[in-house]
Design goal:
This protein has helices at residues 2-20, 24-27, 34-49, 51-61, 65-72, 79-101, 110-135, 138-151, 161-185, 189-217, 222-232, 242-260, 267-287, 290-308, 312-332, 342-362, 373-380, 383-388, 401-434, 439-455, 464-480, 491-517, and strands spanning 522-525, 530-532, 535-549, 554-561, 569-575, 578-585, 591-596, 605-613, 619-622, 625-626. The protein is an alpha+beta fold and 627 residues long.
Length: 627
Amino acid sequence: MDGQRSVARVMWLVGATSVTLPLLSIWSPAAVPVSFKVLVTVLLAMAAAHPVAGLMTLAVLGPVVLPLIITIGPPPFGANEALEAMVLGVLAGIAWRWVVLGPPAGGRLARPSMVLGAVAAASAITLLGVHQLMTEPLPAFLTTLWIHLSRNYFYEARAFPAWHEAAVWLEALLLAVIIERVVHRAPRSGPMLAWAAALGLTVEACFSLLRVVEIANRNADPVGAFWRHALTTRISPHFPDMNAIGSLFALGAAGWLVVAMGPNISRYARALAIAGASVLGAALWLTGSRAAVGATVIAVAIGWLALRRPSWRVVLAALLVTVAVGVMFLAANPNLAPRATAGVALKVRVGMADIGARMVRDHPWFGVGLTAFSAQSTEYASRDLVMLFPPLMFGENAHNQIIQVMGELGGVGLLAFLFYWSRVLLPAFGSLRAGGATLWLWALTAGLCAFHLSALMGHPFLTPYVVFMVFLVVGLVSGLTPERPPTTHWWPRVVVAAVVVALTASLPTRIRETAGAQGDLVIGASPVAGDVDGVRYRVASATSTWFVRAPAKLITMRLRASAESQGPCTVHINMDGWPADQVVVDGQSWRQVRFVIEAIREVGSHRLDVHASGEGCTLLVGQILRQ
């Protein structure tokens, strides 16, 4: 047992160090306002001294991060990055506390979080490896990465997009694990955190209503303008992805409605829940997300049937009212601008699903990599789909969270994703069926169901703000679900360790194959250094690798020794791992080496490994041609 506790402390030490490192880029630069530095520092100190207080503060302030930073002085980065800094402050405070005092044991989220986090991290490391091969030698690249993590983490997120997305996932998973353990240790904190999160999200929704009022007041007829914009204008309070924010508001609205339907709550609590549901419902409507509205109705209806068990007459009346409201929504919704009809939206999603399926066919195990779905989608897009959905011309995401995960992380990532959510929702469903569950467990579980239903028509997890808010709720759901007695089975730990080891072992192969799939990638040669006899060339090292994008029937490589070479160069060339040719070149003229491709591949690349030898040999490689 002491050994397990020591291992746990070491793991939390690694976690505490990892989440503290990016915070250095908050505390060091003068460009960050002192007020924001103080906010993050106070969150860290508060979380270290009293984890519940730190989490409560995050639950209230996190949803309104943009108005908050505007009020106290905005840092030189966006709201997503500001919220991440606040989350890191809380995580660092609690993690360091548990390193010193020992972490609480138990919980069901740790192992699935390790699996899903390892899959995301491996994908990001793969793309980092490819980035390094394409830019600079490994020592220089590691220096660049260290400077980025410790100084520029929040300022230059686009420099390493895959790593930043993986970091958001890892931080959100850790946040859920911490909340789960805090609530298990202090059960009364669960409902308190739920109230705080719901109220914070409701305040954020108020800014949608405020925006409509501001727009209406600029018109000669404010009342008419208010109703016109309420029915025809899509509004998200502070983030551009309407559907992602709609999914988050669906979570909040469904949760408030289930609380309002609770059988044994005070009048004050019911009135507050009705008010919260009204505000979030209105804000949800303003996002114009049909999927989110429909998902909310379905989740709340199921919760109502389970909690209240109404008579069939009441169910029939409610169904008729729901259908009437749905018809009104569909009638008004096409007026939202810019807006496609429901039929066109469905065709687009079917087309994007087909793109995702073909992407998975070509990359079945590990996908195309985090953040890469949009860029890769253009290679799979048909002309008809581009005509129907013009933004696809520049790359688009899947418009379905499951397909997004499957396309970017492959079958392995999808299994890890589904395994994680099964460990969150299935125990909660079991607790609800068994009876005796708290009302907030009913509410938050319904909210998560609404969120996931709406995510079948969107990709809300591409917005970091949404990721952090949802995983805060995940931690609450798992924490409010009664914990089973701990088991002594050894095999779950072994399976998790095996998955992590296997993912780590796969990295060199994945980096090499992903680099090859980039096409026209060069390893071990200079940038274009000039031209000789009209041929632009690179200077190759003794061993170099050249990737040529498929399909190709004939590949022509032009070789020559530099004028400074003391003698001829003997060049051995392997193609796709097999010996292909051996030539001797001098500095007098270019020599063309041709490779005829017998087994033509439609995707991927051909790999040419070039080894040059000879006394004082400097090999020049001209532009490689393919036909």
